[in-house]
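Encode chain A's predicted structure.
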Amino acid sequence: MNTKAILLHFALLFALPGGLLACQRGPESNTPSFAESIPTLSSETTQQPPTATGGPPKADSAAAPPDKREELKSVSLVITNGIVIDGTGADPIPDGLVAVQGNRVVAVGPAADFKIPDDVEVLDAGSGTILPGIINSHVHVREAGTRRILFLLDGVTSVCDMMIPMLSMHYLDEEGIQSGPAARGFKAGPIITAPGSYPGIVYGTHFSYEIQGDDEAETAVHDLHALGADYIKVALEPGIFGDPWPVLNLGELRSVVTTAHSNDLLVRAHVNNAVLDIALE
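Encoded structure for chain A:
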């Protein structure tokens, strides 16, 4: 493996992707953090002062005695020979190791602390860096081929599409193409908005889900949820030129948010500063 960075998509490796918290769930989510999700983190990293050259502190290089090493049992893949950055703010781990079982990371730590079974697949990181995949939380892309070429191959392992026609939502469910997997796709679908407003007035009505009244707001959320929306997006955009565009009123917006939250969906908004108070309300 000659790549200089092995990008482990830790969000992909949880039953409910904690790395996609910002895309899927509000602050009340109980999804565990990366560190909390690792049941066999074998060694603690101690904080040390920076080096005299200003570089990052070096982890303790003392290896565990051979008879004290933790045996990696029931693992399907081990990644070695790289600097591990786990994304929690902890110090990098020189010559680190990441062990995976199925779709879950089960161990992270200095390679010298672990005993690797002979029958386990080992991926050599080539003295590169092993780190969580990057998540792009605002894109406008649908096809799996594009998500592979423009995102996954550059280390972006999940993308959140923020505006897509209803009939095209299924494209974000495609996991890859013949040449390999794509970045995971998450979607809002068309934007819930007032009749004759943004985004339809700019990009076409197929990008809008126009509603009028609290009941239609609730129905819109249910419709999008049934089509697989991972979150809901609303537009609060009165425009900046000429006659102002209509926007959702506070009652409609509250109906959207209440219904979305009851279905465990986050609501995201396109907001103009002129109506920021409605979004904050």
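The first strand starts at residue 5 and ends at 8.
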